[in-house]
């Protein structure tokens, strides 16, 4: 290289390779090592921006708290990290519900201390009951039971607030109001600082929120259209192998609320987006009906195949065409042509059937083939109609309508047994921690109980609290080590707040970057929450060795205690969860068949989606043969349930011939007994369904009244769907079988 030449820059991988060569490590270690630390050494711009923004906000909150000479300034930055999220909508939603939870928790804490002066056991009982009640209510609130749903976070914040106020107030009940107001001041300060600062980092917020709504829907439609196209190509398992698509609809629906907050309350784009995602889920259920009717592809002729090929090509091109708004009118025109052709072809099949019936003798094999083709064409038309509804709602969300009054309510389906279990789990854990504190007279037991209350408030509503608390324990251990270095080495050397902020900033940045890494998110939450708690910055002193260890030790012991409690008291039993879910599905089918006012089709689809989400959450998303089999069973249960509702709607119209109506009623009466762990009546129900199919097929072959023939065909299609699902998933629907769970065999 000549003098003055600019040295060539080496990429990061080349530098790491040369470093590994010097240390003697093998080259294959490089990809693994880089993947493990990429979140720290090469974060993307959004993760880095989140970490920087939240770090600055927490340091500002801490500085203001010290400037105001508040007694416990560390609670202000803790609140910042508790509500900070990657997007403006998420941060605002969480901040609102955190403030609501703070108000509720403050009032509850004042009441608990006021009614139990000098009564430690009563105080612990009331505290445990209060936190358990918050967990019970949070489990029943709308939205998924995850860390991303901030209605539930409002109840978590209530438990957090009641713990930090009531436990401090129990030692000085005469000043409970002042303690409550000071804690509320810290929380309010943290909320205000985070929301104000996050708003400064937003650019083109409204446009980006609209783009996010559109991209989420296109992503959902893309997954659904791929599965439908594969099914129409002959892949019978295409729908069974894509339960994550339905499960993702729940999380996408959760994101709509945050986009609404970012767009403001000037329109109904979020309502249209929720309706569009609901139509996508209903589209999937229509596809399951069509898949069940396609058991014998030989029954479908060239007419069906041509329309199926056109529909498949349309579905495959749909996601890319939705990305181009000017293309939308042409896309809808093509969809309208497909819908019209499906109806015309179905009517043609019906006309051929009528000609056969009115000109005997009837060729049974030909008539059956035409009938099945007509049924498949009719269901395909329903599927395309549902797709049109979804696309219409999507366009309304992307291009708001003037004077729009549309509203689509957020729905949720909760299990009271799960809510009760979450309540008991939290209450018993807090009560035992309090009893331990009272009986041992541990001077720092109050800190131990406070951390137990915080963990129980945060994690008792999750599907896997033991796994979450274990990750939290790992984060607590890591933050204790980091805080020890800061407290013993850095803090004694600084005398002004600016230097303290410079010391804390890199460690907070590490926590913020770790929070952006999905594999480390729960441990990072513990790290970010408790860093300033352990460092304990003060105006008139500093945390010494005794105070530090008297805070860090109760913290780690509280994490370990909660992890142990979640494993021994009402622990998560995946086999039991699946068995209960299976029993609920069978019981639900019975209720759909016999109740005077059954659930709506949208409720059946929504409950099934929630069940699939819970199944995947109980195994942390790790699929296996048993989970796949249960997911297939949930889909089958949803398909059978929708078919039962179709049959009941046909009976309500009262256009079936008396004999056909009697057969359908007999089948539904047998389905009304379709439940129970032992003797689940599977055999008799399946037999009644097959007999009803055979009877309606005979009646349809000789029926000359057009309107009654159409009703028979509709009932026959639903019965064939039920028969196919009962036969294809016999082990799941037969309640006398343990079905893949060795614990019940």
UniProtKB/TrEMBL annotation:
Pfam family, any one: FUSC
* UniProt key word Protein transport: no
Q: Which UniProt keywords apply?
A: Cell membrane, Membrane, Transmembrane, Transmembrane helix, Transport
- Spans traversing the lipid bilayer: 50-68, 97-115, 121-141, 183-203, 418-439, 445-462, 471-491, 503-535, 547-566, 629-647
Keyword Transport assigned to the entry: answer is yes
The signal peptide here is: none
Q: Where is it mainly found?
A: membrane
Membrane topology annotation: Multi-pass membrane protein
Compartments it resides in: Cell membrane
Q: What is this protein called?
A: FUSC family protein
Organism, as annotated: Acetobacter fallax
